[in-house]
Amino acid sequence: MTTPALLPLSGRRIPTLSPGASSFPHHRATLRLSEKFILLLILSAFITLCFGAFFFLPDNSKHKRFDFGLEDVLIPHIESEKEARHSSRQVIHEESLRDKIRADHERALQEAKEKLRKSKEELKAEIQTEKTKVVEDLKKKDGPKPLPPVPMPKLVGVNDGDPGDPDTKEKRDKIREMMKHAWDSYRQYGWGHNELKPIAKKGHSTNIFGNSQMGATIVDALDTLYIMGLHDEFKDGQEWIEQNLDFSVNAEVSVFEVNIRFIGGLLAAYYLSGQEVFKVKAVQLAEKLLPAFNTPTGIPWAMVNLKSGVGRNWGWASAGSSILAEFGTLHMEFVHLTYLTGNPAYYQKVMHIRKLLAKMDRPNGLYPNYLNPRTGRWGQHHTSVGGLGDSFYEYLLKAWLMSDKTDTEARKTYDDAIEAIERHLIRKSNGGLTFIGEWKNGHLERKMGHLTCFAGGMFALGADGSPDDKAGHYLQLGAEIAHTCHESYDRTVCCFKCYK
């Protein structure tokens, strides 16, 4: 009897007959059908399992889903779509922001246009109100009051005919003749230049006016021409100023010289003639000088560039100092500028100088010629009523007179200064001549320069307003100083023959 062999079939052990063993046909057929059925069943289950796993199993973040390697392709595409959507939102936001800014600008522009729709009459009324307010504020402050209205002067010799005294008429005519000769020579040889070299017969422009052709002689002579009745010459000067006088030049000028010659000359011409061009030019120039006051102390620089506004002092001045006669000879013109314009800046600048000087200690009551604009300290202790100091004292007295004698602060400052000068500087020579010396390095130098000669007139002018017991004394002192100056000329060898 043969033993059946076991063969593997789909994990089951199925008995088979060895070769040569007998079997029945129906039994073998049944067996083949069963095997096919089982194979189909197993294959169906396997396919079902695979497809079910592929389509129905949930995506687990911990286990990557089987995706045939498409993940590396799809994810960057998805991310780029996200970025595109974000970028689109950002663009929309920026456009919205720009629209908002544009709307704000248009609204602001519209508001500005509304403000500018005011009529010229309204604007002029507002400006006049502000000017009136400034003048009222100045009246309330201590110190000099604003100037009273200045009437057009009625000039002797211009409107009132010739003087009755023949000798006076002869002298006056000779002086006018000399003035016309000088003007005609300048007109012929130096027109438009600052000065005329009479021997060389050519124009000259000095460094105090930045070597620019600013017509200093024209401006400086206007009031004299008008007073002398030389109206044709005055008109020529006015036309040159209207057409040529320009302060926008790149030139470094002396603040002091430009003030007394240009601003002073233009204001005098305006008050005499009433021509508006002179006032306009004076204000334009004054604005160009204001940057010179931009120092730590408010004491102005000696020079300023009319274009850049940069200032500095003379290289020869003691320790970089400003000069007493220069920063102290601005008061009259700048106060008049405030009166004419209603702008308090000019008045405030010069009043600040006066207040600063009043607070400072003065050796022997004297004002040294040098003051450092950075530190506010005196430089070299050198006092002179001549060069470097002269017109400071003159302007104190004239400020009092100009204010209709209401600027008592200026008058007291003048009186105190003159008292110190008389005590420490005025002496008599061995020949009996009264002179004003100079205080330098702790001692008196017994000399008097040419520029000191103005003091004779100043003492005489200041006698009015002095105490009764001193009025005559100052008149006499003024006469003595004038006599000394006359003698200095009379005793000097004349050199005019050298130029013949």
Automatic annotation (TrEMBL):
Record organism: Sinocyclocheilus rhinocerous
GO biological process: carbohydrate metabolic process; N-glycan processing
Major site of localization recorded for this protein: Golgi
Cofactor: Ca(2+)
Catalytic activity, reaction form: N(4)-(alpha-D-Man-(1->2)-alpha-D-Man-(1->2)-alpha-D-Man-(1->3)-[alpha-D-Man-(1->2)-alpha-D-Man-(1->3)-[alpha-D-Man-(1->2)-alpha-D-Man-(1->6)]-alpha-D-Man-(1->6)]-beta-D-Man-(1->4)-beta-D-GlcNAc-(1->4)-beta-D-GlcNAc)-L-asparaginyl-[protein] (N-glucan mannose isomer 9A1,2,3B1,2,3) + 4 H2O = N(4)-(alpha-D-Man-(1->3)-[alpha-D-Man-(1->3)-[alpha-D-Man-(1->6)]-alpha-D-Man-(1->6)]-beta-D-Man-(1->4)-beta-D-GlcNAc-(1->4)-beta-D-GlcNAc)-L-asparaginyl-[protein] (N-glucan mannose isomer 5A1,2) + 4 beta-D-mannose; N(4)-(alpha-D-Man-(1->2)-alpha-D-Man-(1->2)-alpha-D-Man-(1->3)-[alpha-D-Man-(1->3)-[alpha-D-Man-(1->2)-alpha-D-Man-(1->6)]-alpha-D-Man-(1->6)]-beta-D-Man-(1->4)-beta-D-GlcNAc-(1->4)-beta-D-GlcNAc)-L-asparaginyl-[protein] (N-glucan mannose isomer 8A1,2,3B1,3) + 3 H2O = N(4)-(alpha-D-Man-(1->3)-[alpha-D-Man-(1->3)-[alpha-D-Man-(1->6)]-alpha-D-Man-(1->6)]-beta-D-Man-(1->4)-beta-D-GlcNAc-(1->4)-beta-D-GlcNAc)-L-asparaginyl-[protein] (N-glucan mannose isomer 5A1,2) + 3 beta-D-mannose
Name of this protein: alpha-1,2-Mannosidase
Transmembrane stretches, start-end: 37-57
Bilayer topology term: Single-pass type II membrane protein
Gene transcribed to yield this protein: LOC107724469
Source taxon at top rank: Eukaryota
